[in-house]
Amino acid sequence: MSRPHLTAGFLPLLDSVLLVLAHELGFAEDEGFSLSLTRETSWANIRDRTALGHFDIALVLAPMPIAANLGLTPIATPMITPVMTGLGNNAITVSADLWTSMAEAGAPGDLVAGPAGKALAQVAKTSDRKLRFGVVHQTSSHNYELRYWLAASGIMPDRDVEIVVLPPPLLPEALGAGSLDGYCVGEPWNSVGVVRHGARIATTKSSIWQWSPDKAIGMRTDWAERNPEIVASVIRATYRAAQWCQDRDNRLEAASIMAAPAYLNQPTEIVARALTGQIDGGVQSIDIPDFFVPFDGAANFPWKSHALWYYSQMVRWGEIAASPRHAALAAATFRPDLYRAALAPIKATVPADDYHVEGDRKVRHLVPALDGSLELGPNQFFDGALFDPATLDAYIAGQRDQS
Asked: Which segments of the chain have a pLDDT < 50?
């Protein structure tokens, strides 16, 4: 019997590393399927081609399947998210000119979100024009974390600045051409901006919200229902690739693989920055060990509480009305039940719960697992906020007051 052959879409981002490693290092073959990887040019293409069935699976923005299920996409094909592809890996980068103004307003250049946001607020308040920022997609972690950082720093995103959408690889070039003042994107496109366009990294996702989700493997619900064994194999291949990538001894090899023309087509030295946590922000180089977390801390587990946090941001910024039905649709998009079932044969340690509070832990901590306990990372928001999925309506109401 021939092996199933899956078509998979991805964008040239370091976040695609688990999909690429599953293909290049044989984790997919070991799980009984082969992969054909197709590099796309924009998240809109990934969204539409996955919905139309051109791809069996795809690297997706974590909020994207939620948006599809809430009817926020042009082709609202029901989708699921059975496995995540790591935590962190985004940053907010600004032009050299904007950074000069931020530094004069007190930004220290240490990539910490609070001081950088405070300095940006002073610049935005006195600027004779609206600053323009780029994000990669409307329903993206990047849009929501940029808006979160701005709002918590005293900048109202829909009033004080302009936010536009561009594909990730075009953001550094747009900034270099003077069309943008800053952008939020995954690696390596922040480092590319620093190296090629003199940009400065202002802060990182890991400082805005520690150990937070970003990308996932998404697929159509009807395809997943027809192919449950293949879905389980995809989860296990992704899990094994993440486990391999978490080992720091493997990070430079991963960087070398990702640097190839078929994937990122960038120098290995630039690709390695996020994988090693050695981030050159253009002002100084800073060691951020948890800049990208591919496996530790249940990084691949699709927490329903994470789905609800994304939903809360869609409500906050006027994309969808708050309702119990919408919240239920968002939570149902992430499928921890499939994740647990897929990993049961290999006796992996997986969380026992589907939901957990965010913002309440400064350090690593234990949570219940099916066979004992599991260590998660710190989860604080830079403004000290708390997200408890059990009080979702109150959280949404509180954030509306800040929007």
From this structure: none
Whole-number CA gyration radius for the chain: 20
Count of CB atoms situated within 10 Å of the CB of 391: 13
pLDDT score of 400? 75
Give me the amino acid identity at 156: M
Chain Cα centroid distance, residue 248: 21
Burial label for 131, CB within 10 Å (0-12, 13-18, 19+), is buried
> What is the C-alpha to C-alpha distance for residues 98 and 155, in angstroms, rounded to an integer?
15
pLDDT for 224: 98
The span from the CA of 60 to the CA of 133, in Å, is 22
- What secondary structure letter does DSSP report for 381? B
Task: Determine how β-strand 131-135 pairs with β-strand 182-186.
Answer: parallel
**pLDDT the model gives residue 403:** 66
Rounded Cα gap, residues 180 and 6, in angstroms: 38
Question: What amino acid occupies position 344?
Answer: A
Neighbour order of strands in the sheet with 34-39: 34-39, 5-10, 57-61, 215-220, 79-84
User: Are 240 and 253 contacting, i.e. CB atoms less than 8 angstroms apart?
Assistant: no
- Token pair belonging to 242: 């993440």
Name every residue whose Cβ is closer than 8 Å to that of residue 251 and which is 6 or more positions away in sequence. 245, 272, 275, 276
CA 65, CA 80: separation in Å to the nearest integer?
6
pTM: 0.97
Side chain identity at 310, as an amino acid letter? Answer: Y
- Name residues whose C-beta falls within 8 Å of residue 333's C-beta, 6 or more positions apart in sequence: 65, 66, 69, 79, 80, 81, 307
Phi, psi (5° rounding) for residue 376? Answer: -105, 165
Residues in Cβ contact with 369 at an 8 Å cutoff, skipping those fewer than 6 apart: 349, 350, 351, 352
Residue 48 structure tokens: 């539409």
Q: Is the separation of the CB atoms in 281 and 194 below 8 Å?
A: yes
